[in-house]
Amino acid sequence: MQKLAFGVFLVMGVTNLLAVQAGLMQTVGLPWLVAFLVAIPVFYLRYVGSIAGILGAVVGWHWSLPAAILLFAWPAILYAVLRGGSELRALAAPRRPA
To answer: Exposed, middle or buried: residue 20 (CB in 10 Å: 0-12, 13-18, 19+)?
Structure first.
C-alpha cells in the first residue's frame, strides 16, 4: 500500500511540476528549460505550488477550472471527507456515563 501511495504522489508531483512549467511558458513566454528551472521551487511550496499547478493546467493545457482543481486538490478533498466521516461517527456513537 505504501508503494502505491508513493507512486500516486510521485505522479501527482511530476504532473504538478509540468503544469507549473506549462503555465510559465504560456503566460511569461519562457523557454521550456528556464520555465522548468523556475517551476521547481514554485511547485515545491505547498499551497503556492498547488495554485500554480491549477493555473498552469488551465492556462497551459487549456483544462477547465473544475477539472484542474479536482486534479490537484483531490488529496485534500479526500482527507476532508474521511475526517468529516470520522467526526460524524464519533458524534453518533453512544456515550457511556462517566
So the answer is: buried
Q: Which three cell numbers stand for residue 24?
A: 510559465
* Cell numbers describing residue 15: 504532473
Cβ–Cβ < 8 Å for 53, 19: yes
Q: Which three cell numbers stand for residue 20?
A: 507549473
Q: Give the separation between CA 85 and CA 92, rounded to whole angstroms.
A: 10
Distant-in-sequence, close-in-space partners of 63: CB < 8 Å, separation ≥ 6? 57, 71
**Based on C-alpha coordinates, what's the Rg of the chain?**
18
Task: Provide block-wise average pLDDT over 10 residues at a time, the chain (98 residues).
Answer: 86 92 94 95 87 94 94 84 83 76
